Structure formats: structure tokens, C-alpha cells
Amino acid sequence: MTCLPEITPGQKKLGLVIDLDTCVGCQACAVNCKEWNASGHSGPLPDLKPYSAGAEGVWFNRVHSYEAGEGAQGRTVHFPRSCLHCETPDCVTVCPTGASYKRIEDGIVLVDHDICIGCGLCAWACPYGAREMDEDAGVMKKCTLCIDRIYNENIPEAQRQPACVLTCPTSARHFGDLGDPESKVSKLVAERGGQPLMPELGYKPVNSYLPPRNRTSLAAKPDEAAPTPMDIKNPLLRWMDKVLTR
Amino acid sequence: MPEAPIPLATERPDRAVDYSPPVGDQVKTTTCYMCACRCGIRVHLKDGRIRYIEGNPNHPVNKGVLCGKGSAGIMTQYSPAKLRAPLKRIGPRGSGEFAEISWEEALETATGWLRHVRETDPRRLAFFTGRDQSQSLTGFWAAQFGTPNFAAHGGFCSVNMAAGGLYSIGGSFWEFGEPDWDRAKYFLMFGVAEDHDSNPIKIGLSRLKARGAKFVSINPVRTGYSAIADEWVGIRPGTDGLFALALVHELLRTDSIDLDFLSRYTNAPWLVVRNPGGEDDGLFARDEAGKPLAWDRSRGAVDASLADLSPVMAGEFTLPDGRRVQPVFHLMAERYLAPEYAPEAVAERCGLPAERIRQIAAEIADVAFNQAITLDQPWTDVWGRRHETMVGRPVAFHAMRGISAHSNGFHSCRALHLLQMLLGAVDTPGSWRYKSPFPRPIPPGPGPAGKGAKPNTPLAGNILSFPQGPDDLLVDDEGNPLRIDKAFSWDAPLALHGMMHTVIGNAGIGDPYKIDTLFMFMANMAWNSAMNPGEVIRILTETQEDGSYTIPHVIYSDAYYSETVPYADLILPDTTYLERWDCISILDRPIGSAHGAGDAIRQPVLKPDRDVRPFQDVLIELGARLGLPAFTKPDGSPKFKDYPDYIMNHERMPGVGPLAGFRGVDGSKKGVGEPNPDQLQRYIENGCFWRDHLPPEQGFYKHANKAYLEQSKAMGLMGKSDQIVMQIWSEPLQKFRLAAEGHGAKQPPDRLRERIRTYCDPLPIWYPALEHEGQDLGRFDLSAITQRPMVMYHSWGSMNAWLRQILGANKLYMARSRAAALGLAQDDWVWVESRAGRLKCQVSLMEGVNPDTVWTWNAIGKRAGAWNLDPDSPEATRGFLLNHVISEWLPAQGGFRQANADPVTGQAAWYDLRVSVTKCAPGEEGVTSPHPEALPLPPHMPARPDLLRYSMKANP
């Protein structure tokens, strides 16, 4: 097994906050992630049979669509899924070689491809399906939280964020330190009631999902008392004497 | 026995992360073309290949974001389906047998065919250009050639929105208007296509929702944007107009309308002549100078544009000359107060309870009138009066394909604009806003060019323009169409974008005449761009008794091996969007916003590695070889070296060219100014776009804002700075109707009189889809429509190695309740049958769809072998096109056939389709039908890789 770093108070916990209220399922995050990371820290992200049946590639981020409830009362939910950078992930502890590891300095879970033997134990251990096997190279890959962007001094400071966050057209993705209660993302989670995914499993996911807001409903009610055209002889009379000026 | 624990990562010195790798070695800005949105991108290059494409944070359209399509540009650039060199057909059409030829041979072949046509009868060239963003060049070229037969794909996409808007409010939804995302409190989105203005809409929706504004989505299908709406209204397809008119009814019934706005900014007070049977019936009463009249409370009939008018909006009056007149408002209110527009009367048809329609009307009225917005922003109106504030009705609308793709779409779109006008919610704070260069006069220009086409003679004016009445139609003395697609004829008088969907069908039977050369650019007419691909293929391969093809010459330009390539005789291979110059022109579809004018360019960021040329360069060269006057110097030599030379130096009018920014010799002028030899360089330095910024006093009420209108004229965007009075009552439509009633020199042929009289109603109307008439709607009991996947743009996306992993095969989506009634389970194979044919596909069940509707994703299905995909790909075996059961014609009546299209605009009525769905017999499952034979690949197309490890990382 592989050890996890000891969690200390004030520990930096970098992660994502994903807003299910505004995600329209457009796949911008998934594709831009693929594009950045193909040539990034864990690249390439190979695609098997890219122009044939059975095309299947490595994606660090996938967006699923679900329906909840029946008929018109139901809801369609778009759900982006990627590594949650859990505080106590089994995907690290099950690793027989130490290739899967959690960084003490920011909590990012990474894979060291040089010593990964592609056994796939971590994928079995991860209940979120966040691990992606590079079958061609025989190593496991996963979301790096764009570790080669977020600290990258060759990128303007405002853009030192994961590719999925920057590209999201509905601003449904936010990045920051969820270990700092004063950070923007922590405040967003507090304000909007952000939820960890399947907390009952005990892995303490760092990423958080903001649930859909309550739907805006208005108090206005139809004016049932207003006359129907059938009730009045000449409904246009009321406008005839209206004095208008420009 | 447990092994010793492996130590912490940080204790392992070999585990280095390169935190600051250089992104690439070069970054270039340009404009995306993975769909029609024209977002700004930054392309990072490394060793001459693409490392990363990101949204340009400084770009006004996308503000740094980039969608899934744009992010997949790498795979489109490095697709193995790219054409490699000019091709000439050596086998029969459709065989896919080609030989590579030189550009010289290709250009000489094309010039030979085209020269013959131009010297004999230029109409025999049909030049149609698909999803073309260079129409200011292609349309101009066609006019120079002298053929009226030019259009792009708008006739099967958006013309109902363009015409409905431009003839009503002088601007349109689509991509030429935008909700005031920062102030709207109530937003109604009607059946939008998620590939037009998509990033701006997504950005806007998130801002809107963050403010707690209410978002109502009217759409038979609850996907995409509809999923995040506060209220989803799962209306029946094609009834949006009826729903809108029921809202109009409710607003009138409850007197929830903005009479001041109507009297100042619309033609509501204008007087309409009431003279049934007379030649002036329904026209505006005008004074001697031709100015429309209104009834002033104290003075009677006066010039309707007077600043001190006190209009009487209802009643009937007699002019001094004895004519009876009524205000537009009176006629409008009378019509829509009628019981047929009451919510109860429309509820069943729309598939919505009457109470719900009334509730939505009440909410709209409450927000518009009880939650009005006032900005402390002085402005001056067209009458020269200063106002201290801007008052707004914060109800905004947006609509696109779901309205557009019906045969009642023009009037449905007009109905939405009527709603906006009644609410006073046009270009006010919080409402829908015009994007520059709109508003424009109604209609915005002179009639279309195309009369009197003669050999070797250019046509004067714009081929696609704006009829004001029968005199502007392109018809002969018998009323027969002059254009091959019958646009601007009595078949479709306001076919502003042409009717590409009828060209091949009409040419096939020589109605109204035969053509010699069909010249197309990026239009996949032998597959997903045709309403009926099988019929298009039949015509393109049809031969005459002497063995010659019915359409003798087909020239096609595309960058990829699309399904249409095998049906052309000569292929002019285009570059990708990253290898070319382009111009998102102020003369065509610029990137202006409510905040000011704007336009953009593409610059080549990569050099082609194949023997291909940008289509626009080729067109300019063909123009020179043919000796078209605007493309040659007096000595006959080429006037322009290439497209960038044309972009910078072509002048449509003195000082007005394809780009509005950085004009004048020093680049200091905007709109009007001398050509600037550094113009493109200035665009590049600015991120490949130019954007003007309106001062705040010009931000709203642009139709009546003196400063705005004057500066708009000064910039060359409009010829006049007069008020743009919105048109509730459309006089051009009434003129067509009068002609149908027997008035005037130009009248429709008898067989079209009733049609013109009915559908050229000066006020919005609703009618059931034309193709439903005579159909057994009990048998074909389901409406069938398509939706745009947000991650695809037509066939361009479904060939992309990454995007096709997200959506590689489409199914027919159906309400679970409906499927249960039909005995269908998830993934069952079914036959989908319509009056036009049948297809086979799989069903998928869902909740968020109107139960009387089935739908599928657009353009996922591919023909086996095309796009260099393996013939076994799911796109070809399980993916399907609904197109195969759509007919491009209405059932023939009296020996005449009519396009399956809007009778006013000619817009293709894709979404009027009705089908039945039945389970396949055992043994029929497994492969979609129709499943035409696999296409062979053209010469030298690279082998498809079995594995892609795309990476520009050092030592991947």
C-alpha cells in the first residue's frame, strides 16, 4: 500500500467547485481538458480506433446527462465528472508501487507514470470512475488539476487555472483552495450549500457540487377579473379615449 | 504478509513536476470556425503544430471561453479526411473515382465551363455556398458574373428569423440581437438552436441566473439550455406562434401594454385605408409627400411622424378625401382579442393548459410594468428632445431554429416581435437589444438584383435584398420565377436568403429552366444539408438520352471528403479554417453587439501541407480569368493578388470596404475611409477583431435615438438617420396581398393567388404546417424534429476524432409514456415512416420531451466511407439522418409542386415533419436504413490511424 500525507489544520486542498445550476452539458470542459492535457503533464491522452467503430480515448473529465422525476415536472441534470482529489482516497492506498500519490503541498492526487505498472487496482478502488487507463502505454492516467497550468509562470496569472474552469462558457466551474474557509470557492460552497459526492463512502472528496438553485417563481397571478372579449361589447372602447402624447 | 508501506510522495526525490513548461513557442490569434459563432481564439503553436487552442480573453464575442467544438479544433485540423489536391472525376458521378490534377488544369477547366455560361446565358450558373462566412465576396462575385442564382444556406436555416425581424422591428433574433443579459428579469427562449451565438448565450444565461432572473424555455425538448430553465414549456412543434398570439390576447385583454411606446416607436397609430376590394385597401393613408398619417386628437389626420402628435389609437375615421381609415392599433387589437386567440382556444393545439398560458402572460406583464427599470442616462430622441432617463421593460426574448424551421415560421417570428412591441420591450434596458449594424430601415434596402440578366454583364445591386412589393419580385411577365430556386417569386416573395434546398430539384426538371453548371462551396447537399439526400443524389447522377448528365457540370469546393465530393466533376480543395485569411465582414455578418459595431478576420496560423488553396483566393482568381470587371484592371490583368488584397482594397462604395475598422491611410477611421495597406496588420495586432464602443447615451432606443442614428449614418451603416418606425402592420405584405386580389400590373399566377392572399397577411397569423394538409395525421401521429448537439456543428463535428467519441450515434428520442403505449423499450429498433419514406433506427426513452414529439440529434449520421471514417463506424451503421424521411416538396397540387417551405420566405420547413414509429420485425435490427453503399476514398488520402497519441509535449 501507499501512504497518504497526514492532514494538518489549514492544509491546502486545491479542488473544483462545479455548479449544477448552470451546467448546460456543452462538453466544453471535457474537450478543452483533453486538448490541454494531451500535451500536458500526463499527456498524451491516447485515442484508440479514432476513426472507426469502438473509438475510445482517455478523458480526464466526462459529462453525463441524467433525468430526475417524471414528465414535465422532472429535471434534466448535466453532471461533469472528474477526479475529486479526495482527502483519504483508496486509489492511493491500494497502489502497490507508490505510483499513485497524494501531494502534501496542495492535495492533488497524481500518478507517477514511470513506476505505474498499469495494474488497475486504483481504478477498482475509485468509486467515482475518475481513473483513465492509457491502454497503449499500460499506465493509469487521471486529472492533474492542470498542475502544469496552475503554477505555470509562462501563463498570465489570471489564467493559472485548470483548462476546464477557464473555458466553461456558463462559469459553472470554479477552482481554488477548499482548505481555506476564506477562499472564494469555500465561500461559494457555504453560500450555495455545496455537496460532496457520495460522502458516505468516507473518502472526503475535495471537489464540491453546487446543487441547482430553487427555481425562480413569481407571485404574479392572472387577472381573472379582467373582462373577456366575450363579456364586453366593444373592447376597443377603453383605448379610444386614452390621451397620448409623444 | 503485508509489505512495508511505500513512503510519501514528497519523500521521493525523483518525482519532479515541471510546473512551468512553456505552452508553445508561438501564439497567434484568429477567429474560430468550428461553428458559426465567430469566437476569438488564441492558437498556441509548437514546432509548427498546434499545442493548444483557447478562447481569447479580450475577444468581445466569447470573452475567453471556448466551447467543446472550438476546443476540438486540433482534431479537425489534423483529420485524415482533408482533401489533398484538385481532383477531376474519372468514373461515373457518385463512383468516387477521381484523378489528382494541377491547379492550372483545375482553374482552366472551371474557367472554360464558366466562360461559356457567362457568354451565353449567365443564369445557367447556379452558385450556392453553404455555411459560408464570406458572402460579401461570394455574393458580389455572383453579381459580377451576372447570374441571379446565388445564395448561401440561409434559406434552409434562418431566413424566417431574418425576414420576420427585418420586416417588423428592423433587426432580428438569431445572432443579430441579444437579451440585455445584465438587466433582464424575465427571459423567454423559444426553441433555440444551440449552435448560433452559443457562447454568448451560455455566458448570458449564467449571468441571468446568477441574478435570479426567471428563465422560461419554450421547446418541445428539455436538453441543453432548457435543462437549466426555471420553467420548461414543452410545447408541440410549430405552435409557438399560436402560443405567442395567445399571450398577445391576454396582454390586450388585461390592458397590459405600453401604449406610449406603441404610439412613439411603432406604426400602431398609422392609419390604414379601409376600402375592401379597392386597390388601396390595407395600405397606409399618406399625405401628399407620401408620409403616413395618424389621427391626432385635436387636428385629425396629420403626418404620423410629428413630435406633438396626440394619436387616437382606436376608432374609425374619414379623411377629407372621403376614405375610411383605422389605426393599425385598432386592427391589431381587434384581431387578437378575438376568441380564437384565447388561451382556452389554443391550449389543446399547443399542448399546454390554458391556465399556464395565462400565468405566463401575467408574469410577463408583472415584470414589464411593475418591475420596470429606469437608468439615469440622458439621451435625445429623433425629435430632438432630451430625456433624463431611459425606462426599460425587463422582459427579453430570444428565438432561432425552433421557430424558423416551420412553414409558419415567418409569421410566428412576427408574432414574437409583436409581443415585444406591445410590451415596449425592444431595445430598452432589460429587454431584447439590437446588435450593430441593426436597427436598419424596414425593409433595409432596395429590391434584389437579378432582372434582365444578360451575357457578359454584371448585375447591379445586391442579389439577396429586400422586396418592398410586387414590383421588386424576380418574375417574368407571366409571373414565372427568374431564379432557379424560385426565390423572390410568387412562390416565396421574401426569400431573402435564397432557397438552396430547391436548386438541385428545380434544375433536375428544368423548372423554371435547366442549368449548365452547379458551383457549390462547403454545402453538403448530397447528405445532411439536403432535405431529401436520396433525391439529390438521384438528380446529380441522372443522365439524358444522349448519356450526358442532366446537370452537365458540378464544381465543388470543400476542405474535407464530405458526402457531396463524389458527386462533383471538379473538386477545388479548400484549406482548413486555421490555414486561411477570412473576413467576418461588416458587409455580411459582422460581430457587432448592442455595445457597438465590430468585425473580425481570420489569419493563417498554419501553412497547408497539401496542394490546396483558400476558396476565396480561388474565386478571386477565377474572377480575373473570366474578366469580371471588378476583379480585373482595365488592361485585363488581375485586380487583386489574393483574398487579403481584396479585403483591404476592395471598395463597395467610396470608402466602404469589407472591414470597417482601421480604415484611412493611417488607420484612424472607422466605417468610412480610404483603404489602409496596414489594415490586416492592425487587426492582427488587435487580436484579429475590431470593435467600436457606443457612448452610453446611444445604448438604447437605437431606433429613435438621434445620436445613434446620426453616427450610424456617418459610419456608412445606414443611408439615412430617420427614425426606424417598427411595423406591426406590414405594408409590403399587404401589397403582395392586393396583387393577389387583382390589383396592379404585377399579379401572381392564378394558381398562387389564394396562397399569396392568405399568407401575405399584414398582421401576424398562425396556421398549421402546410405539409400537414391532406396528410393522415392519425397515422403519422408524431411530430419529428432535430436538436443541435452543443458539441457538434453539422457534419463538421461528427467527423472529429474527439467529438465523435462524445456522440457517435444518434437515436430517436421519445417520451417514455408514448413508448409504453407503442410497446417500445429502450434501444428497440424501429421503422420511422413519413409520407416521403421510411428509415430504421433505435429508440431511446426519456421524460423531458413533449409526448407527441420524437426527436434526434442533427447530422450525426454519416454515409459509410465518407470523411475517411471506417465504413463500420457507428455514425454510418447506427447513426441516421431524419432527412431521409423529409420531403423538399409539398404534395403536388394541380400539376404544380411547391417547396416544403414557408410560403412567404421560402424557409425550408424541416420541423413540420410528421411520422409514425413502429417496432422492427425480428431480424431487421442492427443497421440503420437507408444505408447507401460505402464511398471509396479519393487518391492519396492517408490511411486512418488505429491509434492516436496526439501530443506536442517534449518526449511524450
TrEMBL record, chain B:
Q: Which cofactor does it need?
A: [4Fe-4S] cluster
Main location as per UniProt: other
Transmembrane portions of the chain: none
Q: Which Pfam families match?
A: Molybdop_Fe4S4, Molybdopterin, Molydop_binding
Q: Pro residues bias: where? A: 933-942
Annotated region (Disordered), positions in chain: 1-21, 440-460, 922-945
Similarity comment: Belongs to the prokaryotic molybdopterin-containing oxidoreductase family.
Q: What is this protein called?
A: Molybdopterin oxidoreductase family protein
Fetch the CDD domains from UniProt.
MopB_CT_2
Endoplasmic reticulum is among the record's keywords: no
Q: Where in the cell is it found?
A: Cell envelope
Q: Which UniProt keywords apply?
A: 4Fe-4S, Iron, Iron-sulfur, Metal-binding, Oxidoreductase
Return the SUPFAM superfamilies for the record: ADC-like, Formate dehydrogenase/DMSO reductase, domains 1-3
| Domain 4Fe-4S Mo/W bis-MGD-type positions | 25-81
